[in-house]
Write a structure and sequence with these properties.
single chain; alpha/beta; eight-stranded mixed sheet; binds uridine-5'-diphosphate-xylopyranose
Length: 449
Amino acid sequence: MSKVSIFGLGRVGLITAVCLADRGIEVAGFDVDEKKMAQIARGEAPFYEPQLEEMLKKSLKTKKFTVSDNPVQVIGKTDTTMIAVGTPVDRFGHLNLTFVEEAAKLVGKAIGKKKDGYHLVVVRSTILPGTTLSTVRRTLEKASGKKCGEDFGLCMSPEFLKEGTAITDTLKPDRVIVGAYDQKSAAHLEKIYREFYGENPPPIVTTSLSTAELIKYASNAFLAAKISFINEIANICEDVESADVLDVARGIGLDKRIGSQFLRPGLGYGGSCLPKDLRALLRFAKDADLDAPLLVGVGKVNDTRPVRATKLLEKSLGDLKGRNIAILGLAFKPETDDLREAVSIKIVKRLLRKGASVKVHDPVVEKQFREIFGDRIYYSNSAVDCVKNTEGAIIVTEWNEYTHLKPKDFTQHMKKPIVIDGRRALNDPEWNNQTTVQLIRIGAPSKDR
Ligand code: UDX
């Protein structure tokens, strides 16, 4: 069995570590954040992800997963090192490679000290096409004093983990990408994946390093495009007398060439990956003097989604100044406590700018929202408390507990029951043909308004 070290124990690194350990591969982990490492060593997951904590505890107990603050020791014990550090992107799309370079330096130094044996370095971080071949390879060679392709190998193998299903996504991926510097590197990583996936491996696509990097960006850009596409169709449905975007999505999604996933209409995509990866790809294209009108459009459509929510409210309620508005759902999607690039932040900012009073509720997120908005808004401890005395409510995240809300949950408590269902979340049968709430559903027929 292979022995793998992982640099960077964030979402990707830690999840990869416990999954590899679960399948019997020995894993040694390192992170520059000592507090996080201590927490992990105690068996506490530093972020929420279903199954993670129990798998972490198990892997520590069986000693298949160990952590150490000594990179040389961590690498010395293994024949493969995965780099899974963060690659933040600023709002202009500039990628910050500091963490990748620092990690490559540490890994390079440790490889330099290794007396014998071939070592494979695998980049899992999302970086722009060409970066592994240029920056990472050069940094590793300089820090180790060794030569890529002779003394060590180099691969780029992007991850496609979704928050909330990251463990299953790792254990049962649709495909695995092996971008490789040379054949020896590819063969080494393919062997690890075969050990990991056993009898029923997913399709393994072996490519060049830069193609692998681009596959990651192209995947996320395509997913973002599907979402923006269905949101644009939702806008059209809203202007047609009896067209419903959910039926359109179903009707087109059953065509295998289109596929039914990622066609849920809503208030736009958020999270730690889709917005940032699209921005970085657009910046990459711009810097290369390439036109990318389709990708520009994907981002533009997404930027209009939060505006759409407040506009729909204004259409029914008029001026929002002095109005009490409820926001149901803050997390960027259900089943996560993540607020990164969440649409809720943009909507609340807009409402405040328009002079509205805002009440918010989310089943798990509150602390991080308080850090942004402090006491400028009111934090409710239940959906019903949130809509109390308000004149408009917007469902921003389709949490399970909102899907069960009935018309009376709004009529009994709101001053004026106007509800924008921004995620088509309300699905109790009582909503059919009710007239007590003015319900405005994204992408639903205009006759409903
Ligand atoms: C995404 C990619 O799916 C994953 O492959 C990549 O590695 C990381 O980024 P994640 O950010 O966890 O994963 O969430 P995802 O489930 O993709 O949702 C992203 C955003 O799109 C959310 O805000 C979600 O609400 C929105 N979305 C998703 C829609 O609006 N409609 C859809 O049909 C699907």
